[in-house]
UniProtKB/TrEMBL annotation:
This is CPBP family intramembrane metalloprotease. The chain crosses the membrane at residues 19-37, 43-64, 85-106, 178-199. It comes from the Bacteria. GO terms for molecular function: metallopeptidase activity. InterPro entries: Rce1/LyrA-like_dom (IPR003675). Residues 130-214 form the CAAX prenyl protease 2/Lysostaphin resistance protein A-like domain. Keywords: Hydrolase, Membrane, Metalloprotease, Protease, Transmembrane, Transmembrane helix.
Length: 221
């Protein structure tokens, strides 16, 4: 059975704690670390960048358990069912179809291209590309969906507000590297992933869907 909310029985943290948690989650992941650390300068830069993001993931999980004193189910980390897995695969494929239309139909019509960005990422060793894809699926779904969506909904009392705010930050977060035209790419993927999370309320399924998209885009090319 799909959960309609994260954890209605769990104690709610204070508004201040929730705001601090949101600042940690959304503020932390939105920092332009790749630019500051010159991520593409070499494997060592990539590793440092990735370690910082993993540290942020651990910090948010510790914040949920230690500061908010809430279970990890409050951010969607509950055991997935086989239906969650199947729908995650279907959602990942749906996003890939949407992105294919954007990249191969809309972008050429508008004379836009992201070939330079993809070429730069291709210079990273394949093993590190795999690390980036896994980390992106875990960190972005935990911070933008699992934590931000749940806490924003608690604060606002509205799924629409929570989904819109988290999706907006998610979309703008990708502009630093990819450019403003990437709003179409990140925005469409973000909307589908957000709707999927609201539907299944299972963070593992969201991570799988995200991994399928990034894996197909960056590891199979």
């Amino acid at each position: 059975m799909v959960a309609s909310t994260a954890d209605l029985s769990a104690p709610r943290p204070s508004t201040l704690r929730t705001l601090c948690g949101l600042l940690l989650a959304l503020g932390g992941i939105s920092l332009p670390l790749g630019h500051w650390l010159d991520e593409l300068a070499g494997p060592g830069h990539v590793i440092v960048n990735e370690l910082i993001y993993w540290a942020l993931v651990v910090a948010v999980l510790c914040y949920v358990k230690g500061v908010e004193r809430r279970p990890l189910t409050s951010v969607g980390l509950r055991r997935p069912s086989w239906k969650d897995g199947l729908w995650a695969v279907a959602t990942g494929l749906l996003i890939l179809v949407c992105l294919g239309l954007i990249y191969y139909v809309l972008f050429p019509a508008l004379h836009w291209s992201e070939s330079q960005q993809f070429s730069q990422l291709a210079t990273i060793p394949y093993a590190l590309q795999c690390l980036i894809v896994v980390r992106a699926a875990v960190s972005e779904e935990l911070l933008f969906r699992g934590y931000a969506v749940e806490r924003l909904q608690e604060l606002s009392g509205s799924r629409l507000v929570a989904g819109a705010l988290s999706c907006t930050v998610f979309t703008l977060d990708h502009v630093t590297y990819w450019g403003w035209h990437h709003i179409l790419v990140a925005g469409s993927a973000g909307i589908i992933l957000t709707v999927f999370y609201f539907w299944r309320r299972n963070l593992w399924a969201s991570m799988l869907a995200h991994f399928i998209v990034d894996g197909a885009a960056f590891l199979l090319g």
